[in-house]
Structures are given as structure tokens and as C-alpha cells.
Amino acid sequence: MFLTLLSSIWAEFFLELLENTEHSLNEMFVRTYGKPYMQNAEVFQGLFSELKRYYTGGNVNLEEMLNDFWTRLLERMFQLLNSQYLITEEYLECISKYMDQLKPFGDVPKKLKSQITRAFITARTFVQGLMVGREVANRVSKVSISVACVKAVTKMLHCPSCRGLTAVKPCRRYCLNVLKGCLANQADLDPEWTQYIDAMLLVTERLEGPFNIESVMEPIDVKISEAIMNMQDKSVQLSYQVFQGCGQPKPSGMSRSARGVSDVFSARFRPYSTEELPTTAAGTSLDRLVIDIKEKLRQSKNFWSSLPEGICQEEYVAAEENEENCWNGQEVGRYIAEVLKDGLTQQVNNPEVLVDITRPDSLIRQQVMTLRVMTNKLKNAYNGNDINFQDSSDESSGSGSGSGCMESCVTEPDSSITESPVLEADRSVEHSSVALLHQASVFTLILPLFILIHHYR
């Protein structure tokens, strides 16, 4: 399914974007600020390290982390601007208490906090959504089939050949009833799957809007530079206010740097150039990726309930819709039974497959819950609320900053549910064949025969 490839492309794209942004900032700050920056580079390295940790699923509170970054930057800047004084750790703690009151960096921290939190919540949740969808599809593909389904498919595919009718295909309506019976449980996944796809499409809107991660990270070096300029412009007033609140620090016995403060912090930076935008991971830009994923998501709506129709409409699988010279399960002739609707409860009178509608597949039900939880998280992300990826089985996970995971968030199903136990070979050839087929999943039995998967990729 397309989700397998795209989840990797998107995850790599966002990580490359972060790496490129960090490299660009470091390169320009080294070139422009030189030694003062290099002596304090760990402040900026810490910022990007925490952003990467959040994106890859770490337990990071974005707002607190960004507040800490600006506090540390204030402390380092204040020391550089007041190098003639002895600034102790206790004094720096006092300075940090006046952060909100002084607003040394102007409105930049507030604006950047809003943009970064929205952008990273969207990016992380979107990629997590792709991965959850991929895992759901993989697990559903392993659902065990019933003996009744094995018999029905075998009868549909091979009985004509056994009678010498090698050129006769199954009737289209006959094929539909067989597969609707075999894929009844999968069809019941469709309502939650459709809501999940709709939620994914909602989040893609955020990837196109003003809070998309590319447009937020692209000029971050310029914005941090502006913040530094703001603090420099009011350094005298700022120092006076700090001295009023925290007291006059002791002289360090050293004169201010021979290089003027205005020389150290005067340069402003050019923005990202288009050549530096990350395109190598995905081989394209964010805009093109969004266009591509939106189209594929829309095409995947009703994926599960449309499988029977998609399989049976292939010319090498079943006869044309109104063709009467086809195999109807008994002989060559018209198939007169009514084609049933989709879903388990609709199969109570399936004429081709005996379906126990009182026993919904437990793995399918589990994936329904997984999709429901992920859909809720996607909707929260669309509204700008952070979510907790720690436990995908907990619908009441709240909207705190939360921890996360990028690979292991879908609760692993019980092995007794996902896979049929290995059956010992029976001495009877017939029983042995049925046992082996029964261990197979619907997709390993049906889809490879029909070569259909390519139709949905």
C-alpha cells in the first residue's frame, strides 16, 4: 500500500529539513559572529537537538523547551553585553525571573513559539498518522481466513477447469458475493478508515498553510538574529532594569572586549536560498509532496469495502458485468442471486460463503480502535493541540505536550489474534491442504492470485 513508501519519505523529509536548517544557521552565525557564537553554540545546538527529539517521538514539552532556549540565550547575551561585571549563576537565575517583564527579544519569542509548536505538532502527527495507517493495513492483511472462504474461492477458481472449461471465467456477480463473504470483516473497517483519511486530509491543510514546518524553519536564523538585534538595541536600558531588580554585580576586573558589542551583533542574515531547501530525501519539495499525498489519500477512501469490486472487475478474474457465458458456481450460465451489501452483518444469507456474523474478527476490531484513536489525535493536531503518542489504545490521552513514538505507537496485538497457530500436518491430503490454506490470510490467498495490489498502490 502507498502508506509504506510515503511514511518513510515524509519522515526523512522533515528530518532533513531540520538538519539543513541547523547547518544553515550554524554556518551563518560562525561567519557573522565568529568566536562569541562558537563559544555559545551549544545553546543553539540544544534547540535543534530538542526539536529533533520531539519530532522523533521524545517526551518534549515544546513550549517549555523554547522558553528555556530564550532564557539561556538571554543569560549568554547579558554576559557578553556586560563582560566588565562578574555574573554568577545566582545572578543569572535572578535575571531569568524578569524574562517576561523585560521582553529583551521583543515579540520574536512569542511569535516563534506559536509558529514552531503548531508546525511541529502538525508534522509529527502527520507522519505518525501515515505510520499508523501503514501498520493497520499490514495487520489487516494478516487476518486469517475461514475454511468456508477457502472452499468458496477454490470452487470459483478451479471447478470450471476441472470440468474442462478452462476458458470460462466466474460470473462477475458470483465473484462479488464470494469476495464480499471472504472480506466481510475487512469491509467493516471502512467507516473508521474513511474518518481517518478525512482527518489526514485535514492535517495536510496545515502543511500548506502559514504554519507549515518548511515556512517556519526556513527563516529561523533570521528571526533569531532579529531577537539578538532587539536585545542589543536596548542593552543599556535592559542592563539598568536588571541592576535595579537584581542589584549591581561586582566588577570582573576586566575591561569590555576590544571589539565593540555593536560589532559583534550588528550583522543581519540572509534568508534561506532555494538551493538549500531539502529536496534530496523525497526528491521533491514540500508543496509537491502535499499535492501527491492528498491525491493518494483521496483515492484510498473506501479502500476495504471496494476490494471485492476492484478484484472482480479485472478482466482476467471475472467475466464482464452482463456476460451470461460464465461460471455461476454450478454451471455455465447466468448468475441470478442478489449481490449482497458490504460488511459482516450483511452476509447472513450469503449464497456462496458461510459467514458467522456473530463472531466479528478480534484483530479487525482492534484496528478499528487504533484508527479511532489516531483520528482523534489528528483532529487535535489540526486544532493546534499537542497529543500523547505514548499509548495509542488510550482514547483519553488528553492534549498535553506529551511524549511520543514514531514506530511503536500502535499497540501490538496479541499473537493469538494476529496469527493462526501452526497446525500439524494431517495424514489426510485433503485435510492437510485445508489446514495450510486456513493459516493463510485473505490477501495471501486471494490478492496474489488476482494480481490486484498494483491497482491500489
Description:
With 457 residues, the chain is an all-alpha fold. It has 23 helices and no strands. The radius of gyration is 31 Å and the shape is rod-shaped. Residues 257-283, 389-445 and 447-457 have low confidence and may be disordered.
Keywords, separated by commas or semicolons:
single chain; 457 residues; mainly alpha; rod-shaped
Q: What Rg, in angstroms, do the CA atoms define?
A: 31 Å
Contiguous low-pLDDT stretches (5 residues minimum) are 257-283, 389-445, 447-457
Portion in beta strands: under 5%
Q: What's the main sheet like?
A: none
The level of helicity is 55-70%
Q: Helix tally? A: 23
Mean pLDDT across all amino acids: 78
Element-level helix/strand string: HHHHHHHHHHHHHHHHHHHHHHH
How many β strands by DSSP? Answer: 0
Give the end-to-end Cα distance, rounded to a whole number of Å: 5 Å
User: Structural class from helices and strands?
Assistant: mainly alpha
Specify the overall morphology: rod-shaped
Write the layout of secondary structure elements.
Elements: H1 2-33, H2 35-38, H3 41-55, H4 62-81, H5 89-97, H6 99-102, H7 108-140, H8 147-162, H9 172-182, H10 184-187, H11 190-208, H12 213-217, H13 220-233, H14 235-246, H15 261-264, H16 286-299, H17 307-312, H18 362-382, H19 415-418, H20 429-439, H21 442-445, H22 447-450, H23 453-456
